[in-house]
Amino acid sequence: MIRTLTTGLALAALMGSAAFAETFEVKMLNKGADGDRMVFEPAFVQAAPGDTIRFVATDRGHNAEINKGMLPDGAEGFAGKINEEFDVTLDVEGVYGVICKPHFAMGMVMTIAVGDVEVPDTFLEGRVPRKAKERFEAQLGNL
Length: 143
Ligand SMILES: [Cu+2]
Hints:
Layout: H1 2-20, E1 23-31, E2 37-41, E3 44-47, E4 51-56, E5 65-66, E6 86-90, E7 94-99, E8 109-114, H2 130-140
Parallel strand pairs: 1-4, 3-8
Antiparallel strand pairs: 1-2, 4-6, 5-7, 7-8
Bound molecules: copper (II) ion.
Residues 38, 62, 100, 102-103, 108 line the site of copper (II) ion.
């Protein structure tokens, strides 16, 4: 009897989380709504474990990929091709730094926070161009 109840609850929890998983659309743009050039929009997404990010190739010539080292321990990185629209589901809590490789130096970067997390000390430790660093810092201000 107790086992049946436990199984039922586990199943309900599983179905509940699946039912509430969200998909966030992030557009890759030559020019954002605020006039900034080469942007992901939105540039910051607060997600929950199991949520999906959909990168939409609205303008041509962009990609979305995890910048080296900018992901939580145990998480898998990803790298989209130029002009590729794709979905990525993030299960591991933490902070993810995403760049467009051709426009990294122009500051085409975005941040995804999964779960209730803080900025890791090492997040901006690697080589990050000045403009990209400024934008990352602004995005991390949401945490
Ligand atoms: Cu780009």
